[in-house]
Amino acid sequence: MAKAKKRIRKSFETGRVYVEANWNNTLVTLTDPEGNVLAWSTPGRNGFKGARQSTPYAGQVSAEHVAEQAQQFGMKSVDVYVTGMGPSRDQTIRGLVNGGLQVQSIALRSRTPHGGCRPKKVRKV
Questions:
Q1: 13-70 pLDDT tens trace
Q2: What's the CA dihedral at 72, 52, 21, 102 to 10 degrees?
Q3: Which of 5, 68, 80, 94 is deepest in the core (most CB within 10 A)?
């Protein structure tokens, strides 16, 4: 007996998208306004393997996949939270726009040092 496709009953006007851009991969997560996960996507899930996962194009494809799923929930606009210093940060946000979502705000949450650590003392010989 074949199972029927699960029907989505929830509907949200706005939501949140969390983008975790590492040097080797990009993770895109869609949540409702309270933070409950609705959908997610990675380049590996979309057919990219190895070094191609870290490319900006792979991040864009993942974002477009999440945007399609967001429209099934009735979302029209999202707030984007970006973490990490990977190469696909900007292109992933463009992928959300190309997928039909309106980006209300972008928040960078990367933990980068300002000024960095104190340098070592100069060695005296």
A1: 999 999 999 999 999 999 999 999 999 999 999 999 999 999 999 999 999 999 999 9
A2: -30
A3: 80
Is 123 within the bounds of a domain?
no
CATH of the domain at 97: 3.30.420.80
Number of domain units in the chain: 1
Structural domain boundaries, residue 36: 14-108
User: Is residue 61 situated within a structural domain?
Assistant: yes
Per-residue model confidence as pLDDT tens digits over 68-121: 999 999 999 999 999 998 899 999 999 999 999 999 999 999 877 778 788 899
| pTM metric for this prediction | 0.82
